[in-house]
């Protein structure tokens, strides 16, 4: 009955968001309207004002988090460090089950993440 989910993120500037999501993250832009930037599984919605939430709003599963971080860093993405998280040199936190997680933000301050799940 339900198909694939669609994630939503807010943006005050869709052109800036497009530059980030398409340029830095290499996501395919499916459509741009005055109201949204549409990507596979994601709709970046235009808002007049926005206060970022203090939690992750969107994330991706990756096979090799270290390689993905290095590639995104080369594209200008800055990874976030949190006090007390015990992150490694790349900003990766290893969960108790061995999964690896890293966080970064989009231009509007939405917290995004990468996760490499434990085998």
UniProtKB/TrEMBL annotation:
Domain of life: Bacteria
Keywords carried by this UniProt record: Lyase, Membrane, Transmembrane, Transmembrane helix
One Pfam short name: Glyoxalase
Record field: transmembrane: 23-42
Entry-linked InterPro entries: Glyas_Bleomycin-R_OHBP_Dase, Glyas_Fos-R_dOase_dom, VOC_core
Domain VOC: 1-117
Descriptive protein name: Putative enzyme related to lactoylglutathione lyase
């Amino acid at each position: 009955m339900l198909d694939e989910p669609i994630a939503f993120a807010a943006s005050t500037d869709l052109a800036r968001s497009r530059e980030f999501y398409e340029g830095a993250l290499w996501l395919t832009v499916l459509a741009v309207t005055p109201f949204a930037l549409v990507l596979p599984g994601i709709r970046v919605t235009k808002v007049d004002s926005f206060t970022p939430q203090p939690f992750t709003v969107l994330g991706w599963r990756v096979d090799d988090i270290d390689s993905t971080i290095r590639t995104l860093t080369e594209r200008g993405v800055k990874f976030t460090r949190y006090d007390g998280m015990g992150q490694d040199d790349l900003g990766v936190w290893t969960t108790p089950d061995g999964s690896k997680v890293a966080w970064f933000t989009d231009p509007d301050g939405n917290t995004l993440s990468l996760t490499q799940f434990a085998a």
